[in-house]
UniProtKB/TrEMBL annotation:
<feature type="transmembrane region" description="Helical">
    <location>
        <begin position="120"/>
        <end position="138"/>
    </location>
</feature>
<comment type="function">
    <text>Catalyzes the first and rate-limiting reaction of the four reactions that constitute the long-chain fatty acids elongation cycle. This endoplasmic reticulum-bound enzymatic process allows the addition of 2 carbons to the chain of long- and very long-chain fatty acids (VLCFAs) per cycle. Condensing enzyme with higher activity toward C18 acyl-CoAs, especially C18:3(n-3) acyl-CoAs and C18:3(n-6)-CoAs. Also active toward C20:4-, C18:0-, C18:1-, C18:2- and C16:0-CoAs, and weakly toward C20:0-CoA. Little or no activity toward C22:0-, C24:0-, or C26:0-CoAs.</text>
</comment>
<dbReference type="Pfam" id="PF01151">
    <property type="entry name" value="ELO"/>
</dbReference>
<keyword id="KW-0443">Lipid metabolism</keyword>
<dbReference type="InterPro" id="IPR033670">
    <property type="entry name" value="ELOVL7"/>
</dbReference>
<dbReference type="GO" id="GO:0030148">
    <property type="term" value="P:sphingolipid biosynthetic process"/>
</dbReference>
<dbReference type="GO" id="GO:0005789">
    <property type="term" value="C:endoplasmic reticulum membrane"/>
</dbReference>
<dbReference type="GO" id="GO:0019367">
    <property type="term" value="P:fatty acid elongation, saturated fatty acid"/>
</dbReference>
<keyword id="KW-0256">Endoplasmic reticulum</keyword>
<feature type="transmembrane region" description="Helical">
    <location>
        <begin position="212"/>
        <end position="229"/>
    </location>
</feature>
<feature type="transmembrane region" description="Helical">
    <location>
        <begin position="235"/>
        <end position="260"/>
    </location>
</feature>
<keyword id="KW-1133">Transmembrane helix</keyword>
<keyword id="KW-0276">Fatty acid metabolism</keyword>
<comment type="similarity">
    <text>Belongs to the ELO family. ELOVL7 subfamily.</text>
</comment>
<protein>
    <recommendedName>
        <fullName>Elongation of very long chain fatty acids protein 7</fullName>
        <ecNumber>2.3.1.199</ecNumber>
    </recommendedName>
</protein>
<dbReference type="GO" id="GO:0009922">
    <property type="term" value="F:fatty acid elongase activity"/>
</dbReference>
<dbReference type="GO" id="GO:0035338">
    <property type="term" value="P:long-chain fatty-acyl-CoA biosynthetic process"/>
</dbReference>
Length: 283
C-alpha cells in the first residue's frame, strides 16, 4: 500500500513538473506565479474569514466606521482600473487585435511583454478587491455577503492564475478589458456613496448600473462564443475559452433573471440581487 501510494505521488509530481514546464517562462519571478498553492491558501483564508471567523469576531462588537478608508479604497480602484484599461488597449486591443481570433503572442516584443505585465496586474487586482467583502464584515453588513458574491471574488483570482501562467494575451483577455471599464463606473459610484449623503445627488446614474453589468456579460458571452463558429482559430488553450464562456453565460443569466423580476414583472428583486449591485456587488 505504501509503495503504491509512493508511486502515485511520484507520478503526480512528475506530471506537475511537466505541466509547469509548459507554462509561459515570461512570468517567472512574478509575485504569486510560481505555484497555485499560495493563492489557494489566500483565497481559502478569505472564504473562512468572511463566512465564519469574521462575523463571529464582530458578533458582539459595534460596526466600524470606515467611510474615509472606503472612499480612498474605491477611488484607488478607479485609478487602477483606468490604468489597466489603458494598458490593455495599448498592448493589443487598440493596437492590432481584430476582436475575433486573436492568439497569444509568446514573443518578447515590447508589446507582448506589456500585455504580460498588464495581465498579471489585473490578476493581482482581484486580491485587492477581496477588501470589498472584508469591509462588509467589519461594517456588519452580513446580508451583503452572499454565496454569489463570495464565489465571484474567489473564483476570479484563482482561475486567472492559470490564464496568466499559460496564456497572457489574446482573445481571452477581452473580458478583463471590459471588466476594467465597468469597474471605473462602478467604483466611482461606490466612492461617491462612501463620501456621504451630500454626494448622493451626483448618483442619478445608479439606475443604469444593472444595465451596464448586463451589457458587460452579454458582450463577453458573444465575443468569446464566436470562436465556436469560426472555421479555423488555432487559439492555444481552448479550455480557457470554455471557462470564460461558462462564467459570462452564468452571470448573464443571473442578471437577466434579476432584470425580468425587477423591471418586467415589477416584482421586488431577489434578496441576493437587490438593487442589482448593492447586495451581491458582483462585478
Amino acid at each position: 500500500m505504501k509503495m503504491a501510494f509512493s508511486n502515485l505521488t511520484s507520478k503526480a509530481a512528475l506530471l506537475y513538473d511537466e505541466w509547469i514546464k509548459s507554462a509561459d517562462p515570461r512570468v517567472e519571478g512574478f509575485l504569486l506565479m510560481s505555484s497555485p498553492v499560495p493563492q489557494t491558501i489566500i483565497i481559502g483564508t478569505y472564504i473562512y474569514f468572511v463566512t465564519s471567523l469574521g462575523p463571529k469576531l464582530m458578533e458582539n462588537r459595534k460596526p466600524f466606521e470606515l467611510r474615509q478608508i472606503m472612499a480612498f479604497y474605491n477611488f484607488g480602484v478607479v485609478a487602477l482600473s483606468v490604468y489597466m484599461t489603458y494598458e490593455f488597449l495599448m498592448s493589443g486591443w487598440a493596437t492590432g487585435y481584430s476582436f475575433r481570433c486573436d492568439l497569444v503572442d509568446y514573443s518578447r516584443s515590447p508589446t507582448a511583454l506589456r500585455m504580460v505585465r498588464t495581465c498579471w496586474l489585473y490578476y493581482f487586482s482581484k486580491f485587492i478587491e477581496l477588501l470589498d467583502t472584508i469591509f462588509f464584515v467589519l461594517r456588519k453588513k452580513d446580508g451583503q455577503i452572499t454565496f454569489l458574491h463570495v464565489l465571484h471574488h474567489s473564483i476570479m483570482p484563482w482561475t486567472w492564475w492559470f490564464g496568466v501562467k499559460f496564456a497572457a494575451g489574446g482573445l481571452g483577455t477581452f473580458h478583463a478589458l471590459l471588466n476594467c471599464v465597468v469597474h471605473i463606473i462602478m467604483y466611482s459610484y461606490y466612492g461617491l456613496c462612501s463620501l456621504g449623503p451630500a454626494y448622493y445627488k451626483y448618483l442619478w446614474w445608479k439606475k443604469h448600473m444593472t444595465s451596464i453589468q448586463l451589457v458587460q456579460f452579454l458582450m463577453v458571452t458573444i465575443h468569446i462564443g464566436q470562436i465556436y463558429f469560426m472555421d479555423d482559430c488555432p487559439y492555444q488553450y481552448p479550455i480557457f475559452i470554455f471557462v470564460i464562456w461558462l462564467y459570462g453565460s452564468m452571470f448573464l443569466i443571473l442578471f437577466l433573471h434579476f432584470w425580468y423580476h425587477a423591471y418586467t414583472r415589477g416584482h421586488r428583486p431577489p434578496k441576493t440581487m437587490k438593487n442589482g449591485i448593492s447586495k451581491s456587488k458582483d462585478h
